[in-house]
Amino acid sequence: MSAVPGNPSAVRPTECIRSEDFDIRTDFPKYRVYSGGKCIETRRDLSDVWTKDHVGFLIGCSFSFENALTAAGLPPRHQKTGTIVAMYRSNIPLLPAGIFTGGHYIVSMRPYRPEHIERVREITRAYLSTHGEPVAWGWDGAKQLGILDVANPDFGEPQTFEEGEVPVFWACGVTPQIAVEAASDKIEGLVFAHEPGHMLVTDWTAEDLQKLKPGSI
């Protein structure tokens, strides 16, 4: 997160970003700008809208465990097809905090065969700081999450299913944007977020992330 309000370059813990010229306003591939709970535009540079009152938070992403899945012979489909991972609005409620009430989780999805799911769970479980293991899987799991049409994601792109595969769902870093939407005009000023599928690459390695525990940073 930003170490000093308004400072787009000071980050803690410092090991996360070691570059001296890091700037949270420009170093993401693409941003969303929210006002009154609505996304009003996308842009590649926040320099002229960032203020002295803004503070940034860096949230873990499930992309961080995908190298481990690939190394185990279980590469995510979107990596093979060159698409953006599919993301969906779920019916899992977020814990309320202050003005942030009424929001629900976003989940990402990767297709796998049922016999591979336990191995997928085992591999991703080690990455607790980047969402950990799946929250649901299978077609019944999709229904339990309130997802009725896997072919039409709310964010990202549809994924191709091979014969016998089922959807596997993880928590997703797009979720805070849904909390902002739910807060609506209770938030004063502009809120910025990454465009889904356009994340920041940090200096932490996958091995570093396995050592982190939720709440330790």
TrEMBL record:
<dbReference type="GO" id="GO:0047820">
    <property type="term" value="F:D-glutamate cyclase activity"/>
</dbReference>
<dbReference type="Pfam" id="PF07286">
    <property type="entry name" value="D-Glu_cyclase"/>
</dbReference>
<protein>
    <submittedName>
        <fullName>Uncharacterized protein</fullName>
    </submittedName>
</protein>
<dbReference type="InterPro" id="IPR038021">
    <property type="entry name" value="Putative_hydro-lyase"/>
</dbReference>
<dbReference type="GO" id="GO:0006536">
    <property type="term" value="P:glutamate metabolic process"/>
</dbReference>
<dbReference type="InterPro" id="IPR009906">
    <property type="entry name" value="D-Glu_cyclase"/>
</dbReference>
<keyword id="KW-0456">Lyase</keyword>
<comment type="similarity">
    <text>Belongs to the D-glutamate cyclase family.</text>
</comment>
